[in-house]
Amino acid sequence: MISLKRNSKLELVEALGKRTRASSIYTPGQTEDFKVSRGRFSNFLTCPRCFYLDRVKGLAEPGMPGWTLNETTDLLLKKEFDECRQHQKPHRLFAQYGTAQWQHFFFWE
Prior knowledge:
Layout: E1 5-6, E2 12-13, H1 38-46, H2 48-55, H3 68-87, H4 92-97, H5 102-106
Antiparallel strand pairs: 1-2
């Protein structure tokens, strides 16, 4: 599976699958306290092995797959409606089903 990761600017970055921030990885024998959030502690109670792989070995959890179907559908519909707005004509589905109020829904004044 290809893992897509985006930074704060929503630009694609390489997904290495390992944690890079040193403060989030426990090093055996370290002298300073290792802080754990409530969520991570809950993860430990759920699956100690997963917690170990995450916090000691630095392996990041696999990301949730994106909503590609939803995003693509939304993008295509927006493009289609923008084109209809540009040409000042109703969408083909509005014309096909005879919606009389399409201008009020479709155009802004």
